[in-house]
Structures are given as C-alpha cells and as structure tokens.
Sequence to fold (140 residues):
Amino acid sequence: EKMNASNGVATDFFTMQGTNGGNIRWQGNVNTLKVHDGSILGFGASTSLQDTDMEIFHVSNESYIRDTGAGTLFIQTDGPSITLGSTANNLALSATFVPGGAINLYHNYGKKFETTSNGIDVTGLVEFDSLSGTGAVAIT
Fold:
C-alpha cells in the first residue's frame, strides 16, 4: 500500500507495524494517532529505544502513564483545576485539585473532604480506629 504524500506531508492514513503486533496508525480523516495494545509511546533523552523516562501505553483493559525516570512526574494546568473522574459520566468525580488551592475528594457524587485556607472540611461521618494527640483536641 502506498502512502499519499505531498511536499513531505502524509495525508489520509498510514500504519507503522511492530514485530509483536503492536501497531501505530495515523488516521488523518479524524486527526487521530492510534496506538494499539502492545505499543508504547516513550519519552525521554535516552538513546536506547528500550530505555525511556516516561511511557504511555494500553494493555488489554488497563491504561498506563508511567514515569520511569529519576525525576518527578508533574501534572500541571493553567486552567481552573485538574479533575479525576469517569469519562462515562462527568458527574462521577473522584477528586479535583485547584492549583494553589483546594483539594476535593468525592464519594457517590458528593464532596466528602475539602482542604481550605483554615484547614479541612469533612462532610459526613469520620471514623477512628484509635485517637491520640497532643495539644487541643475537641470532638463534639
């Protein structure tokens, strides 16, 4: 199969086929780079293809973002927050992180834990296996 190209620019689609069936396919009609199971997107300064600092891949039913380097993995935004939740239901939040601000944790669609400028705010029951402390402890 020929790849359509004009002035060094490929159009339509093309497939890069791996030795173990891990294909990578560009689909120009939908602007999608599809990385099949068994293929890894590797990032980093290493000259070895088997030695990367960060990897993004999918195997069977599991998806991975893996930091394999010596440094820190940063997740950053210039937007209002970073949100962890379900793609199937935008209301099914697990956590939101506001840069320089609150961290919110959710359970069954309700906020249960929030960091504030004064400390934390907990909604619902708090259970302890044991409780000890120094200084002022007031539980009502």
The longest strand covers residues 110-116.
